[in-house]
Structure prediction request, 181 residues.
Amino acid sequence: MTRKRISLRQELPLLVWLVIVWGALWQDFSAGNLLFGALIAVFVARLFYLPPVELGGRFNVLRAVPFGLVFLGKVVAASFQLLYLAVVRGPRVVSAIVAVPLRSHSDLLVTATGHVISLIPGSLVVEVDRGTSTLYIHGINVRDAEDAARLRKDVRDTEAGLIRIMGSPEEVSALKQEAAA
Prediction:
């Protein structure tokens, strides 16, 4: 079976990202190393089927900066909360796996949401159901249904922030309608 040829315009973001990752892994951003990384990126992209990433066609910097600041605040606050739980509560801390259905079915937004959540200490994505866009999150200190609902709300708020930053116009419109309801 032959695969449909992906245009260079569609594949360019992937290739650039692979070259950046190559340079970061080798901790060498010299021209020769990046050129070699580019050759490997083209080889990998041509040899293995990697579906093109469907971008929403927009990136809102004015939404991204506050989102980044809130994210950093959550990382700091969660770090102190985990320190407290480790020192005071120790092994008596209860955790749970919580299913969180997302609004977006975009692979990019589901992945971005999962990564942002996993970067906050005390939460980790353990499974993704791509068909239903559901993240299964392992959360620390989830003792009851109220804590699970709070974790679900935090994840969906994170997703909403990412939709405002880089979601499609349809997703942004649906988010506005949901907020108005």
